[in-house]
Design goal:
The complex is a heterodimer.
Chain A (H helix, E strand, L loop, with lengths): L43 H19 L6 H11 L3 H6 L3 E6 L4 H12 L5 E3 L7 H10 L5 E5 L5 H8 L3 E4 L13 H12 L5 E5 L3 H6 L6 E5 L18 E4 L2 E4 L11 E4 L2 E3 L5 E3 L8 H16 L4 H8 L11 E4 L2 E7 L3 H11 L7 E4 L26 E4 L3 H11 L3 E3 L3 H6 L4 E7 L1 H11 L2
Parallel strand pairs in A: 1-3, 1-4, 2-3, 4-5, 5-6, 6-9, 13-17, 14-15, 14-17, 15-16
Antiparallel strand pairs in A: 7-8, 9-10, 10-11, 12-13
Helix pairs in contact in A: 1-2, 2-5, 4-9, 4-10, 6-7, 9-10
Chain B lengths: L12 E6 L10 H13 L4 E6 L11 E4 L4 H13 L2 H7 L3 E5 L1 H6 L2 E4 L3 E4 L6 E18 L4 E2 L2 E2 L2 E14 L7 E5 L9 E2 L1 E3 L2 E4 L5 H4 L1 H12 L10 H13 L3
Parallel strand pairs in B: 1-2, 1-3, 3-4, 4-14
Antiparallel strand pairs in B: 5-6, 7-10, 7-11, 8-9, 11-12, 13-14
Helix pairs in contact in B: 1-6
The chains are: A alpha/beta, B alpha/beta.
């Protein structure tokens, strides 16, 4: 099997939940054993559901409504609600959930596990049951399934897929007008995962994650760090105030505290349970957050016998994930595309653009349904980090951002759209940071 | 700079943000940042004090801010504030208070907690809050109380975003902050948003509210420094944002 980076099919609309049906079948013909349930073994109802899902997906694609996977998956699930369980039966499943980094970590784990054989994955972030089902239907033979799961659906998907491992990266505020409060999500994870037979690979630096994993028998703790701490001042168990000294944290009122990690992100390298350092400097995905994602991915891969050196070598091949971190040429500029959906994500993204020379930063913020329609979160983001950089502002909610940047003391200009902004920018590299639908619109515009 | 404004000097304007660790769910820091920014433009040296919920609320602040949060942090905040005399004493000597959403409910006589039922607030203003039957989520426009003015002019329509299940009943001792044109404010069908009495104002609007209503920020600053003139800041982007938000909901 080739270790070359997997090409992702591009294009399509700005639909939120797209699934790429070509990704999962990259390894077809690689001569693997059929570990998943053979198509002939599926009950009649499931066969009809898969077929109906494929037809619906094809119709949806033909109608120009995205790649069709989610719609197909929805139809198929209606015909056979147990379809996801059937499509994952016999496979070794890994689930990945978090507020930030789940698409990237899913991709990194999938790359690492491809050392063992074919892997099916919902590679483009269609992470609710319909999208997951559609992705699983695209490759019925892959022995491994690495599945990104929306935070709200983790317990339900875990019940359906009986995973061997679940990676829990972080929880923080995101789309508060449509999602549950962050602690409620942690509670849902805690209740839903209690008694799970999966090995949980969890971030010991996120108190909400630690509490959520608290009723699981087997946990591998990873010190993956936590740049954004504003949702983790209050003890998720008792409401006491959390105390922090260096990396350690503990509750002043109860015994919840940071567990001892066995995997550690240590600067530019990871350290495995035997103290072996594996450099992460060769990763093509930039920044601290991606080194954290790679550390967690290596810990997951090692559960299946993939040595961390080998895992990291495979992860180094990943250059972009669903367009994120891609650098594209457009109108004489090189645009580096960065996605930041919530305050924690923006904080990690500023880490990427800091220290670089003072090339411009272009920001685009929307507040469409998939973004959350409340822009209050802009005031949780520390935009003072962009002082000294020329900042160009576009997007549906550019005026909200303008007020925010004015108060942050940042020099900015506001433009009607990307082309107008670029006309006002020098040639060369521009860091582009956008939230969810703004990012999809930009990708479509620049053909990334 | 207009008369009555203090020269920049050793006496700082103290902005106290109460319990950001519990009640800061909806960009509530924004209200503190807006006040800091405008107070600096008014010539004040500004000192911002963020009070975590295991710390005492200082009594000597000029402006107190308290923000929004869900049931559990609201209950924890209430427990801690009831034991801490800081805010009550400050309000008693006329400090300015802006309370948003869950924080607004805490300023009243009682509020409702899913787990424990009716719980006492601080009773700083004459309102009581209950659990409504529907979640109020979305843009709000409310015509500000005509009795409120900055620089001789009214505050204009208040614009913001709400996300709550509360209904707040206003007693005799307060006036509504605004009359709702779009959205819900003090609960579905209430027709009003927020309340004010003396130098205490409460609202369900975030966005945050002062970013979208700079005149309200100046009103609160005037309660603290006695100067009713508008802050000398570039209002271009605030005004364009207000216009856009009002147009977006057809107001």
């Amino acid at each position: 099997m080739s270790a070359a980076p997997v090409a992702v099919r591009r294009g399509g609309g700005a639909e939120r939940h797209r699934v790429d049906t070509t990704v999962a079948s990259q390894d077809e013909g690689a001569g693997h054993g059929a570990a998943a349930q053979d198509p002939a073994d599926l009950p009649a109802r499931a066969k009809v559901a898969v077929a109906a899902g494929k037809v619906t997906g094809a119709v949806s694609r033909a109608a120009g409504r995205g790649s069709g996977g989610v719609i197909g998956g929805r139809v198929a699930l209606r015909l056979d609600p147990r379809l996801l369980a059937r499509l994952t039966a016999g496979r070794t499943c890994v689930l990945v959930s978090a507020t930030n980094g789940k698409t990237t970590t899913t991709r990194l784990i999938a790359e690492a596990l491809r050392a063992l054989g074919p892997v099916v994955s919902n590679a483009l972030g269609a992470n609710m049951p319909a999208g997951i089902t559609a992705a699983m239907a695209t490759d019925r033979d892959a022995r491994y399934a690495v599945i990104e799961v929306d935070e709200k659906y983790l317990p339900a998907v875990a019940t359906q897929t009986t995973p061997s491992a679940i990676a829990l990266l972080n929880l923080s505020r995101d789309q508060l007008d449509r999602a549950a409060e962050t602690r409620m999500l942690a509670q849902r994870w805690r209740d839903g995962l209690a008694g799970s037979s999966a090995t949980i690979v969890a971030n010991c630096d996120d108190p909400l994650v630690v509490w959520a994993a608290g009723q699981v028998e087997r946990v591998v703790w990873v010190a993956a760090g936590q740049a954004w701490q504003e949702d983790a001042w209050s003890c998720p168990r008792c409401g006491g105030v959390l105390q922090r000294t260096g990396q350690e944290w503990h509750c002043a009122a109860c015994d919840l505290r940071r567990p001892q990690p066995t995997w550690v992100l240590d600067g530019e390298a990871l350290r495995d349970p035997y103290g072996v350092r594996v450099p992460l400097g060769g990763l093509r995905l930039p920044g601290r957050a991606n080194r954290a994602n790679a550390t967690t991915a290596a810990a997951v891969a090692s559960l299946f016998g993939v040595d961390p050196h080998r895992a990291v070598a495979r992860m180094e091949q990943v250059a972009a994930v669903a367009g994120r971190y891609d650098t594209v040429s457009y109108r004489g500029r090189q645009l580096r595309l960065l996605l930041a959906k919530n305050p924690a994500g923006w904080l990690e993204t500023f880490d990427l653009v800091a220290g670089a020379d003072a090339h411009p930063v272009l920001l685009s913020v929307n507040a469409l349904g998939a973004d959350g329609t409340d822009t209050s979160w802009l005031w949780d983001v520390d935009y003072t980090r962009l002082r000294g950089r020329p900042v160009l502002v576009i997007g549906q909610r550019r005026l909200d951002l303008a007020v925010r940047l004015q108060v942050a003391g940042v020099d900015f200009t506001v433009h009607d759209d990307l082309d107008a902004a670029l006309a006002a920018a020098p040639e060369g590299l521009i860091d582009v940071i956008a939230n969810y639908t703004a990012f999809q619109q930009l990708r479509q515009k620049v053909g990334a | 700079m207009s008369q009555g404004r203090p020269a920049p000097g050793p006496s700082a304007l103290r902005i106290v943000w109460i319990y950001p660790d519990l009640l800061s769910t909806y960009g509530d820091q924004g209200n503190a940042l807006i006040l800091e920014y405008r107070a600096a433009a008014r010539g004040h040296r500004v000192e911002r004090v963020d009070v975590r919920s295991d710390q005492a609320v200082p009594e000597q602040g000029d402006i107190y801010l308290i923000g929004g949060g869900e049931d559990r942090p609201q209950r924890l905040a209430a427990e801690r504030l009831r034991r801490d005399p800081g805010l009550t004493r400050a309000a008693g000597r006329g400090a300015a208070v802006l309370a948003v959403c869950a924080g607004f409910q805490l300023m009243g006589h009682t509020f409702y907690d899913e787990q424990e039922g009716v719980l006492p607030g601080l009773g700083l203003i004459d309102v009581t809050s209950h659990r409504g039957s529907v979640r109020c989520v979305g843009e709000v426009v409310a015509d500000s109380d005509p009795q409120l003015a900055v620089g001789g002019a009214g505050l204009g329509p208040l614009t913001g975003f709400e996300n709550h299940m509360g209904t707040t009943l206003l007693g005799q001792g307060v006036r509504p902050l605004g009359t709702v044109r779009v959205g819900n404010g003090n609960g579905a069908g209430a027709g009003t948003d927020g309340a004010h009495a003396g130098t205490i104002a409460g609202t369900y609007l975030h966005g945050p509210v002062l970013a979208r209503n700079p005149a309200l920020a100046d009103l609160i600053l005037s309660w603290a420094d006695g100067d009713s003139a508008p802050s000398p800041v570039d209002e271009r982007w605030h005004q364009r944002l207000r216009k856009e938000r009002l147009a977006a909901v057809g107001a």
